[in-house]
């Protein structure tokens, strides 16, 4: 198989052996972020399709996720970083009940590499923990990630909690994750939230939003 296909296959098959050598070879002619976006994420997409259609069982999805995480960790030191720092602080979390964190961690990498201070709380975070961290770290923005359909409902509840605690004006919120749609965030949630709420389709849109919100 050509290198690109082979890397994609490694994600789909959850095969770590030889991964680093292939990543080294790919780094010879492409930037690290391009490898993640154009190749590895394609592999995860196939995994999602196979799982969704019942052709792949959960333990194999987990293996694919592990290979993805290993690959991203290996590529991270090769990613471009700006010299900026201290551009602002975001508290980032996967919402309550949701364990998916690959996308959230990519957002962390992209924002950190571009001068933002990221307080990454991890997965399954109740709103109380997110709000506490936001106050403690004097966050400029709150970022929530979630991939399950039920997480989109939890995000709505979290925004309502911010309203109730009169914190909405202080915290613009960026939401991301595969189950969200732009319309749901920018129309439905925009209507209920008393602060700013924006949708990020991917980590780069997350970065653009951060720059727009506090830059
Ligand atoms: Co899960 N899972 N999973 N899973 N899983 C999905 C999400 C699913 C769509 C698969 C499917 O059925 N086709 C489906 C959800 C269906 C639904 O809700 N309607 C699903 C399911 C059902 C489940 C379980 C319930 C399965 C079960 O137990 N029976 C279970 C849930 C457990 C729980 O959360 N309580 C489960 C478990 C798992 C694993 C643990 C095996 C593993 C996760 C490992 C991990 O993350 N550490 C896993 C995986 C890997 C997936 C798929 C295949 C891939 C997700 C992924 O990492 N994508 C996924 C299929 C899919 O998404 N279509 C699926 C790559 C990642 C980079 O993309 O996170 O979307 P993503 O991030 C993107 C953007 O969304 C955006 O930026 C990133 C790209 O730049 N983004 C942000 C994300 N967050 C952002 C935040 C921002 C800005 C941008 O600012 C704050």
Automatic annotation (TrEMBL):
<feature type="binding site" description="axial binding residue">
    <location>
        <position position="100"/>
    </location>
    <ligand>
        <name>methylcob(III)alamin</name>
    </ligand>
</feature>
<protein>
    <recommendedName>
        <fullName>Methionine synthase</fullName>
    </recommendedName>
</protein>
<comment type="function">
    <text>Catalyzes the transfer of a methyl group from methyl-cobalamin to homocysteine, yielding enzyme-bound cob(I)alamin and methionine. Subsequently, remethylates the cofactor using methyltetrahydrofolate.</text>
</comment>
<feature type="binding site">
    <location>
        <begin position="97"/>
        <end position="101"/>
    </location>
    <ligand>
        <name>methylcob(III)alamin</name>
    </ligand>
</feature>
<comment type="similarity">
    <text>Belongs to the vitamin-B12 dependent methionine synthase family.</text>
</comment>
<feature type="binding site">
    <location>
        <position position="203"/>
    </location>
    <ligand>
        <name>methylcob(III)alamin</name>
    </ligand>
</feature>
<feature type="binding site">
    <location>
        <position position="145"/>
    </location>
    <ligand>
        <name>methylcob(III)alamin</name>
    </ligand>
</feature>
